[in-house]
Specification:
The complex is a heterodimer. By secondary structure, chain A is mainly alpha-helical. Chain A contains 11 helices and no strands. The longest helix of chain A is centred in the middle third of the chain and has 34 residues, at 201-234. In chain B, helix 3 (31-41) runs parallel beside helix 12 (217-241), helix 10 (134-145) packs across helix 12 (217-241) and helix 11 packs parallel to helix 12 (217-241). The longest helix of chain B is centred in the middle third of the chain and has 25 residues, at 217-241. The termini of chain B are far apart. A 4-stranded parallel β-sheet of chain B has the order 7-6-8-9, with helices on one face. In chain B, strands 3-4-5 form a 3-stranded antiparallel β-sheet. Classes of the chains: A mainly alpha, B alpha/beta. Chain B: It holds the Pfam family Pescadillo_N.
């Protein structure tokens, strides 16, 4: 073989892709791309004439002062963004109208049925149905739509009709428990004649005196209270405190007292304890009673007893002479019994007129309605009503034990209200 | 063999009474519902004789009810209605808060209602029992009829109470049962005799009336609820007893032309206004009978042939007949400042004719210029006495005439004159009591003696 044959540079094989891959052809590609671009955008520049590419400027450029730089206009941002412009309908393109289904009732009925309906002849069934429809509508309109529960009385409640046949499976009616009337007082109490709008002098004075009595009682009570208050004020606060302390600490032993007791011991009876413990003097043999003494005492007792009995027998034997006085005594006793029975009967009867305490609050008599003599007008036109009938009715119920006196429930707060100012709210 | 140890508070009073809270727990009601139930059923608290025994040693003040009463209450069907109402309110609130208008309408239309007929029947088994309790009922209904709109009570109760009281007044007019009247500073007291039962009731004064705050209106409303039902049934029975239509029908309703005031009213309102005017007569059930032939209270057959008693009864009957026709043939005209409704009621109850100026209220039958008017009621001190054919008197004349069962001389009642005192007709003087001179004079006049004859 031939050694040292100068190797020739491998030549580019133009018919093989593999070979071409090894060659760098970027510059050629660039030139060709540029040519294509020129062709795309306005023709090959090499083929263009000079006049197309270049111009000769013979004039001097104009100075800046001739055309002032236009102010920058603050263009209003268009409300409609341009990017959405393709969404807007093109006015030049007309809408393609599609046929919508019509809402009119289509003629679904067959022609022979249509004829029947138009002719007006109705079947029995149809007529019946119409009548019934009317009835139902009337019923619905008549339906008792009273807003409240007020119904007019339309039948006799106390009609003594023959009883309906008793249903054997019905629950037996519960009987109302028989109770006495809560009070025997009349429902509407007739007023005192002095309460007339134009009263007679005497009646008016009587009523005034009644009102006067009530006021006097009130004044007395107030006076008592005032007196008591004055007495209290007289006492010196220091002495008051001392006496209070001593009273409150009754029975409580002080420390020193306890110590003393321990020292004394259990056997010795202290001077203090004497009045609490009942102590009998010690029994001595000398003061014992002998048998004779006891017998004597017994005899004495017997004698006294016999004497007493003898006396009683005598009085009994002589009672026959005391008949009149005995009768008088018996009569007196009977009269006494009758009087007591009468009192009891009256008390029993007045029970019906009493106001009972039915609840926590006490019944307070209503204030006496009276017009002072200055306020008395003789005319009905000028009369200003005194007292209130609502209050009067309520008091009447309370007086007759139908209701208990009531007080409006006070609204109170369980916890005290606290006010807190927010930190952000700086004063 | 030994009996079990008897413990305290197991027998006797301790087991007969129950406190209010215990009762509420037993019946499973709220306090308001329990109160309403007690008022409707007429169950009242009782005071035990020995509170300590009932309360197991403590003396705390409680309200006690009898155990038998509470057990009886437990059988009342209205309790279920109360509970239904509670559920109704709950559902309605829910619908309103969720702004569900359809549901709200539907629920409102189906509000649960209840009737009190069986309770009235059970509390008053006979008509006479009901009449005995009518005083309270009438006073409450009249009082509620005067309440204005916007008061704490539902309007329907007020209207219903007013309607019933007007019907009752019509009955009294038709049956001529009114006997005594008295004007006090609190109100006007009436006394009537209906089917042998004496009824007394109060009517408040028309003007200057205040509605106080410290009254529990809910309690009063419950009372009125019951009393209106009772009064409705009583009216029905009373109307049928004198052969009148109930609900009342006016005799000349269709004939009277529509007034200017009435133009803007509905049919119902116009009818109600005319009825409450009390100026027209009612139509009776049987045509041709009418209210003229109302029978007086028949006295029971006097078994004793005691001539004195029979005489007395006769005299009484005569008196009453005279009273019933006190104002017969007289025509009155009321001025504006005078309490119209009371006077119309009184005058018509005693057979008189009455009218007023048509701008005051509906139902005026004749104008002021009518020549046949015999009396005009005025209350002002000076009047332009236009007409000579009639007497001008103050309203107290009417009341005093009624109380004295005769027409009094009118000199002391002329306008501007100081009136004689208005005496109470409810006072019955015992022998030896002090009698005011005026009353003595009137009694003498009644007895036919001369005036100024002394005590």
């Amino acid at each position: 073989m031939e050694a040292n044959v100068p190797r020739k540079k491998s030549r580019l094989a133009k018919n093989k892709k593999k070979a071409w891959r090894k060659v760098d052809i970027t510059d050629v590609e660039e030139f060709l791309e540029d040519e294509r671009l020129q062709e795309r955008t306005g023709g090959l520049v090499a083929e263009k004439l000079d006049a197309e590419l270049f111009t000769l400027e013979r004039k001097a450029p104009a100075t800046a002062t001739e055309d002032p730089v236009p102010k920058k206009k603050r263009r209003k941002e268009p409300k409609v963004l341009k990017c959405y412009s393709h969404l807007m309908p093109d006015p030049k393109i007309k809408l393609a109208r599609k046929p919508q289904p019509s809402r009119k009732v289509k003629d679904k009925q067959a022609p022979h049925i249509k004829e029947k309906v138009l002719s007006g002849v109705k079947t029995q069934k149809e007529l019946k149905a119409e009548d019934q429809r009317k009835l139902v509508q009337e019923k619905r309109l008549k339906k008792d739509r009273t807003k409240g529960s007020i119904v007019v009385a339309s039948y006799n409640l106390w009609d003594d009709e023959p009883k309906k046949p008793v249903d054997p499976f019905a629950k037996p009616l519960v009987k109302r428990p028989k109770r006495k009337a809560p009070s025997d007082l009349p429902a509407v109490q007739v007023p005192h004649p002095g309460a007339s709008y134009n009263p007679d002098y005497e009646d008016y004075q009587e009523l005034l005196s009644k009102a006067h009595e009530v006021e006097e009682k009130k004044l007395l009570e107030e006076k008592k209270l005032q007196k008591f208050e004055e007495e209290i004020k007289k006492v010196d606060p220091k002495t008051l405190e001392r006496t209070w302390l001593s009273e409150m600490s009754e029975g409580i032993k002080d420390k020193e007292e306890l110590k003393e007791e321990e020292e004394d011991g259990d056997d010795a009876i202290n001077a203090e304890d004497l009045d609490r413990i009942s102590v009998n003097p010690p029994v001595r043999r000398e003061s014992k009673k002998t048998r004779t003494q006891r017998n004597k005492e017994k005899k004495k007792k017997m004698q006294e007893k016999l004497k007493a009995q003898g006396k009683m027998d005598k009085t009994k034997a002589n009672e026959i002479f005391r008949l009149k006085s005995m009768k008088a005594e018996l009569d007196e006793r009977e009269a006494d019994l009758q009087r007591k029975a009468q009192e009891r009967r009256q008390k029993w009867q007045s029970q019906g007129l009493q106001t009972r305490k039915l609840g926590r609050l006490k019944f307070e008599e209503p204030l006496l309605e009276i017009k002072l003599s200055g306020e008395l007008e003789g005319s009905l036109r000028k009369l200003k009503p005194e007292g209130n009938l609502f209050v009067d009715r309520m008091k009447s119920f309370e007086k007759r034990n139908i209701m208990e006196p009531r007080q409006e429930a006070k609204k109170y707060r369980k916890y005290k209200r606290k006010t807190v100012i927010k930190r952000s709210h700086k004063v | 063999m030994g009996r079990e140890r008897r413990k305290k508070y197991e027998k006797g009073e301790a087991t007969a009474f129950m406190s209010r809270n215990q009762a509420i727990n037993k019946l499973q009601l709220t306090l308001a519902d329990f109160r309403r139930l007690c008022i409707l059923k007429g169950i009242y608290p009782h005071e035990p004789k020995h509170k300590k025994r009932v309360n197991k040693g403590s003396t705390v003040h409680k309200t006690y009810y009898l155990v038998k009463d509470i057990n009886f209450l437990a059988h009342e069907p209205i309790i279920n209605k109360f509970r239904e109402f509670k559920h109704f309110v709950r559902r309605l609130k829910k619908a309103i808060n969720k702004r569900n208008k359809d549901a709200e309408q539907r629920i409102r239309n189906n509000k649960p209602k209840y009737k009190l007929d069986h309770i009235v029947r059970e509390r008053y088994p006979s008509f006479q029992d009901a009449l005995g309790d009518l005083d309270d009922c009438l006073s409450m209904c009249f009082l509620f009829g005067t309440m204005p709109q916007g008061a704490r009570v539902h309007m329907e109760y007020i209207n219903h109470a007013r309607k019933l009281t007007v019907e009752f007044m019509h009955y009294i007019i038709a049956s001529k049962s009114l006997r005594k009247v008295f004007i006090s500073i609190k109100g006007i007291y009436f006394q009537a005799e209906v089917m042998g039962q004496q009824l007394t009731w109060v009517v408040p004064h028309g003007l200057g009336y205040q509605h106080p705050d410290d009254v529990d209106y809910r309690v009063m409303q419950t009372f009125v609820e019951f009393y209106t039902t009772l009064l409705g049934f009583i009216n029905f029975k009373l109307y049928h007893s004198i052969n009148l239509h109930y609900p009342p029908k006016l005799e000349l309703d269709a004939a009277t032309p529509v007034d200017e005031n009435e133009e803007n009213m509905t049919e119902k309102e116009r009818y109600q206004e005319r009825l409450s005017a009390l100026s027209q007569t009612l139509r009776s059930l049987d045509e041709g009978g009418g209210e003229e032939e109302v029978q007086l209270d028949e006295f029971p057959a006097v078994e004793t042939d005691d001539p004195d008693r029979v005489e007395k009864a006769k005299v009484e009957a005569e008196k009453i007949k005279k009273l019933q026709n006190l104002f017969k043939g007289l025509k009155f005209f009321l001025n504006r400042e005078v309490p119209r409704e009371t006077l119309v009621f009184i005058i018509r109850s005693f057979g008189g004719d009455v009218s007023w100026h048509k701008s005051v209220a509906v139902g005026a039958t004749y104008p002021e210029s009518d020549e046949s008017i015999t009396h005009q009621i005025v209350d002002r001190p000076q009047t332009k006495n236009q007409y000579l054919s009639r007497y001008y008197v103050q309203p107290q004349w009417v009341f005093d005439c009624v109380n004295n069962t005769s027409l009094l001389p009118m000199e002391s009642y002329f306008p501007g004159a100081t009136l004689p005192p208005h005496l109470s007709p409810f006072v019955e003087e015992a022998e030896g009591d002090y009698v005011p001179p005026e009353r003595q004079a009137l009694i003498n006049r009644q007895l036919g003696l001369q005036e100024d004859s002394g005590v």
